[in-house]
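Crash report, auto-generated. Payload:
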Amino acid sequence: MRLYYEVAKRSFARQGAYRAANLAGLATNVFFGIMRNYLFIALYAGAGATVQAGWTVADAVTFVWVAQAIIMPIFIWGWWDIALTIRSGDVVSDLSKPFDYYSFWLAQDVGRAVFHLFFRAVPTLFIGVLLFDARLPDDPLRWLAFLLSGALAIWISFGLRFLSNISSFWLLDYRGVGLLLMFMNGFFGGLLVPLNYWPNWARPIAEALPFAGMIQVPVDVYLGKATGMGLTDALLFQLMWGAGLMLANRQVLNLAVRKVIVQGG
Amino acid sequence: MSSIANTVSDIGEDIALYRRFIGLRLRAQMQYRASFLMMTVVTFLGLSTEFAAILILFNQFGSLAGWDVGEIAFLYGLANISFGLAEMVGAGFDVFPASIRRGDFDQVLLRPAGIFTQVMAADFQLRRVGRIGQGVVAFGLALAWTPIDWDISKLLYLPVVFLSGAAMFMAMFVLGATLCFWTVQSIELINILTNGGTELTSYPLPIYHVAMQSFFTFFVPLAFVSYFPALYLLDRPERADWPAWIPFITPLVALGFITVARLAWRIGVSHYRSTGS
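Recovered output after restart:
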């Protein structure tokens, strides 16, 4: 356990080295937040009805800012760290070290996520609340549920990224799968359009996929759209995907390890 | 007179050189045909989700600031085709920060060929036709959904709009690369104006805060990528809010913007000190 804690701590510290890049990234999150903030205000103003698909304009605007805040800790972007070690062959030495390979990478991702929580998510949401009309949950218990849901979202995201990366044991070009995953995260996760606005026939499909557990579900929890039994269901849904992906990843990794032929040199 | 003749022959040489560089890159990319096809298809499908998102929103809300779905698709098509063209031609400026860091730029300076051309040709990804193709599909749908009162001046105006838009995005790539002469590391601040700018120009300008409207009209003139051209081409009532000539200065604005970018680039080059690594 101590080892994984140290791995996470180093990963956290490594993120801090890119200070200018982080500031530029924060500015990008805020810019997209501002654009979509005004997009939803204009959409609601034009529609005339104060409630659309169960959401008020305040819900939509809050969704925009919370989503912009959490996409960095959850990390919905292309991520090739493991694929690159498979390509270079470094994966062999990582696999032979005395630690659990999956947990080693998960610890790295947790360190990264905690950094992004403090230096990307918090400032983005702060700006959304201070300068725009994003709301904060008034119930401290809801904060707790949101943190739990966010942690599960990171676990799901990591599971999908791990799976797409180790697919490069078989596929020679790792970028295609990773790029596809990135687009699916944004679309089916609800970042581009929250799933409650989706047409009735498409919504249940999107809500069953793991991507929903990465953005839509945590923001629903934040907004208080999932309470009581709904909250339990939401968290169970995330837990199921997180655990399912972990089991799948371990199986696939076992298959891959049996297949690896080291060329040496 | 002879200096003009020299300049003209220099430009001719640069164009010939650029074509040779691109030819090399294309041949290299075609060695991995399956990989190229997969990346192009993924890019096309992936970016289609952006357009699908717009369709879902309009299915729910009906219209945006008085613009219907066809008119938004028109803006979206203009923005994405322009950006796609700029991204394909100007990709070299996007990978430029790495060559500053590695010190590769020293080699560029030593070669007896145009610096601008060499940097521009340093990367060329044919898979980027994925984005252009996606913009073309959206633009095609826009034409099918929105009746446009075509006349000869509008037909002549349309290609000018695409080229001007591409030039403006290209200018932003150049400005982003120019920053690296001072910062050495890649500051991805310019992504806000390139990727962010594409989304911004996919919607009508008046939905944004007045300060943003002024900023993107007078300072970073992205409003000329899609909004002002669309006011004219679609005969939108908002045109009455502006002087009648506004849509027609689009190429001049693009020319001005790219001149500023080239000037900044030239200052950057003369300011360059190698990292020495």
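Post-recovery validation: The CA atoms of residues 123 and 241 of chain B lie 42 Å apart.
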